Amino acid sequence: MKDLFTNSLNGYILLSSLLFCIGVLGVLIRKNIIILFMSIELMLNAVNLLLAAFSVHHNNPDGQVFVFFIMAVAAAEITVGLAILVMIYRNTGSVSIDALKKLKW
Amino acid sequence: MSESIQQYIPIAMQFLVASGFVITTIVASWLLGPKVKTLHKLDTFESGLQPVGNARMQFSIKYFLVATIFVLFDVEVIFFYPWAVNFREFIQEGFEGFGKMLLFMAPVLIGFFYVIKKGALEWD
Amino acid sequence: MSKLKENFNDKKMTAVIILSCLGIVSMLADIFSYKKALWYIVLAGVAGAIVANLNEKSNAIIYDMLLTDNYAIWFSTLILALVLLWFMVSKDQYESGVYNSSDNYALILFATVGALILTSFSDLTMMFLGIEILSIPLFILAGSNKKDVSSNEASLKYFLAGAFASGILLFGITFIYGSTGTFKLDKIADWANAAGSNLPALFYTGILLVMVGLAFKVSAAPFHFWTPDVYQGSPMFVTAFMATIVKGAAFAGFFRLFYTSFTSASGSWALILSILIAATILTGNIIAVYQSSVKRMLAYSSIAQAGYILLTVLLSNQEAKYALLLYIASYGVSTITAFTVLYHVEKIKGTDTFESFTSLSQTHPLLSVVMTIAMLSLAGIPPTIGFFAKFYLFSSVLKSNTSYLWLIMVSVAGSLVSVYYYFRVIIAMYGQHEPIISSEKKQIPAFYNVLLLLLVCVIIILGMMPDVLMSIDNL
Description:
The complex is a heterotrimer of chains A (about 100), B (about 120) and C (about 475).
Chain A (H helix, E strand, L loop, with lengths): L8 H21 L3 H26 L3 H31 L13
Chain B lengths: L1 H6 L1 H24 L6 H4 L19 H15 L3 H6 L1 H6 L3 H22 L7
Chain C lengths: L1 H8 L4 H14 L10 H17 L5 E3 L3 E3 L1 H20 L1 H5 L5 H20 L3 H19 L6 H32 L4 H11 L5 H17 L8 H8 L2 H26 L4 H24 L4 H22 L2 H32 L10 H4 L1 H15 L5 H16 L4 H26 L15 H19 L2 H4 L5
Antiparallel strand pairs in C: 1-2
């Protein structure tokens, strides 16, 4: 445990946190729904990178198995998201979240 | 040194076979196929769209449907990788590994059957 | 193959297998045209799953991923019972022709599989998968009224909130994995016990991120902003499903994770969680007062109730398990009843505002009585089960730790505020007398009258003798 912050793992943690924060900011700031989806994917991929790094660090394959599950689930999730997007585009003709004002936010 | 080069011979063979297959089919179709030259055939290929003009055009919503279905079934393949890596151990244990893979494939195939029956792949 | 066969012979996770197969059967109903019989097949299947679940081999470890202890078995049974109830009351909505019942039932059944996994996981991988199997069908169900823009909007907002929360939850899980090197709940607990008081910052951050992710899922303030919109925009019985079964399963998973793995590190998260609880109770109850739509009021009330249920996670001891089981049962039954009445009222009057309940007691006396009892139960007034659940919860918090007295005072104050908006419905039904338009006299089918009477009996009988649920030993 003591060498957790003295070896190269530190770099992975920083990089992943940075990517994750970019994803979070993207979700919070952007208006275009497709870019929101991309930001969510960025968050998940930051997690994947960190899991792979930890997996190698602990010499334990569980982390990489988890990455497989995250990939499959993320694909299913984004498929559903795109289907919802197509449905909204059919009804409103727009892919901006500003078009959705029917319910109070 | 020579031993380590020998290890790569199967890979080199695979490269040769793969590129040989591609070259053979291209050359064969060029030699055997009829040669008709029209404006459309000499055009740049853009997935059936007009290569010149306004890029902002409406295209069928079917593209999204097929694309999303493709993403789903494509990603399911990743579960084959860990299975394939452990294939040797599964063989030694008999049919258990095979049975598990069938168990995984069955719902995927049922999903595919559902997609076909619902007419999601029919191109009007 | 031998191990697979062994699993079938050992009756392991039979309920999950039955429900998955039932989901596939229901998905194919359209293609093989047995849609008319589907409702009966699904009811029989869910009932079979309850029986199978009660016969489940206890304390079986399944591939080191699931653990069917008493906690798992009883929470699964409760969730399956609520699902059975849901299928009975929602029949009318899916026969109206707006929704495709075969696809909707399949999605509900798949979501239930996720709920069952959330009650019995012993590995963080399974927790993540359970949450996702529970959420992804619901993104679709929220938007199942395809032509309605507000349903679309609810679907997208639920998707964005859900996917965002999953990202945060995963980041937390990764940090916990990074510090402990394992995803197994018991090994994480062992590691935290061995590390004692000098736990690394990575572990703390992980716990906090997991807590934020789960708070999103159970809609605790300040991560509740998506809830009112999603609940309002979704079709009525999808909202009922989200408010009862999804919430119950999410809490069962939340409690299981924190109780098993993080109790020894409670110094790091107890304070933050208690602030979260106070904020949730206050926001939920206060904003609910200002609503004009009953459906939106119930959404804010569900946020407030989430605050009370979170008290059990804060407590994290043996007694809290009983409090959680009792509270989810009481809240689930009362909420399903309230949504069923609201569905019929909306169908008759066309809107779901408080005004639509005006002089309901004259045209529909039974609906008014049922709604009154559901509201009393949600407000926590005897002789309903809601009273006993709240009483048991608050008293067990005070019994174990008197330093949470301030939190109980906030909760009681919140409950008092909640009486106001629950009683607004009752007063609207019985208070004013207005001339009745003949089109509003349409009665509901006898089947639902019987069902609603049954639900009222459950609420009152369980309120009189809650020992039925308390007598489960070694939960």
